[in-house]
Structures are given as structure tokens and as C-alpha cells.
Design a protein that fits this description.
Helix content: 25-40%
């Protein structure tokens, strides 16, 4: 994700640690200011376009900054919802891992394997129900 000040500051790369439909928690190399207004550019891996959102900082601590989204247009709200809850048909396990991997803490091989196992299990339960 890229974070830039609405006052025209340079964009900086940040890591999203928690994302919801109302806001997010990020870690960045520089600290944000409480009540500061920022423009966020979020790109899902494999997607061509960025989701541009406006947000305001509501909390800053040693681990990062919490931001709340400004009023979202319905289209941006739907895109954000699809980003948070990807619509995976369960057919291609690798596609599921890619879609859900960015939402999980998959910094190491064991975490990736746990996610693969979880998705595989959910897929099997879905097929049994059909």
C-alpha cells in the first residue's frame, strides 16, 4: 500500500497489518500524525488497478498507525469488500492461496502451508455439501 498526505506529500510504502471496511492499521517507516488526512493506494497482488481511498489517522503507537476511511462511494465500498472477503470459487487451490494469502500473516513457509491446509479443508467441506 502507498500512503501520501492529502497536502501533497510524497508517497511512502506501508504494510497493512489489519484491514476492515471501516479502516486499517499500517506500519510505515515514518510516523503519521493524529487527525492527518491521507490518500491510500491499495493494490491487490495480480490486479492491474489500484483502489484509491481517503483516510484519517485516529491512533498512532509504537507499532504503527490506525486510520479510518472517509465516506466511501458505493463502488469503492464494494471493491474494498471484495478485497477483504475475496470471492473464491474453491476450484483452484493456488488461486485461493493467492487471494487469501495477502490477508493472512504468511511471512514464512509454515504460515503458507497452514493457509493451504485451511483452504483445502474448506474446499473439501464445500464439495461434500454439494
Amino acid at each position: 500500500m502507498t500512503l501520501s498526505s492529502k497536502a501533497g506529500g510524497a508517497g511512502q510504502a506501508c504494510i497493512i497489518k489489519d484491514l476492515s471496511e471501516s479502516g486499517l492499521f499500517i506500519t510505515c517507516p515514518t510516523s503519521a500524525k493524529i487527525d492527518g488526512n491521507y490518500q491510500l493506494s491499495i493494490k491487490r497482488p495480480g490486479a492491474g488497478e489500484y483502489l484509491e481511498l481517503s483516510a484519517r489517522v485516529i491512533r498512532v503507537d509504537n507499532w504503527g498507525s490506525a486510520l479510518i476511511f472517509d465516506r466511501l462511494e458505493p463502488q469503492k465500498s464494494r471493491l474494498l469488500s471484495n478485497l477483504i472477503q475475496p470471492k473464491w470459487d474453491g476450484k483452484d487451490l493456488l488461486e485461493g492461496v493467492i487471494m487469501h494469502g495477502m490477508l493472512e500473516d504468511t511471512a514464512n513457509f509454515a504460515a503458507c502451508m497452514r493457509l493451504t491446509s485451511l483452504l483445502s479443508s474448506n474446499y473439501r467441506h464445500t464439495n461434500r455439501a454439494l
